[in-house]
Amino acid sequence: MLAPSQQQDIASVADTQRVRVLHRDYETRSRAILKSVGTHKYAADRSTQVLCCAFAVDDEPVQLWTPGDPIPAAFIEAVTSPTWVVCAHGAHFEDAIERHVLHPRFGWPAFPVDKQRCTQAMALAVGLPAQLSTAAIALELSNRKDVAGERLMHQTSKPRRPHKDEDPAASTGSKIRNGSIGYMPIVSKMSK
To answer: Which domain does 190 fall in, by range?
Structure first.
């Protein structure tokens, strides 16, 4: 239980500043297979790359960060301000990617556990499905996962199979073929 002075401190902060929420979702790719090795081994694998980060503050429009862009100001604000929390569906994945990939390679902030919120855990706590797409269906939400976008994301994030002329045991996935570096080629509407 909190002491009366701590309760007053919390109440005064709550009265003057509302909690801001930074929603984030990383799209990654790796030679490691996430379902086979688990979240932390996947994130710690040297081949794991972040393709992009979709993020939004509260109910504001979604923004996109890609490697080479500066760290978004919202991430700096979220890690330094006591009135911010960060949220993701399956937040353990975002946390592992931040700690193992983004922080060491890009100087990205790593958020303390007490600032993190996981919508997957929240869904499970009230008896909803863990998978985001099925939870959205169960809740009859108008915003749902984009099936075509999810399919494309899976194509770009999974390692490609070795070609006939490649030795699967010797392949490091680093050969460049058809615009790919050991992965399915990234295809966009503009390239068709």
So the answer is: 159-192
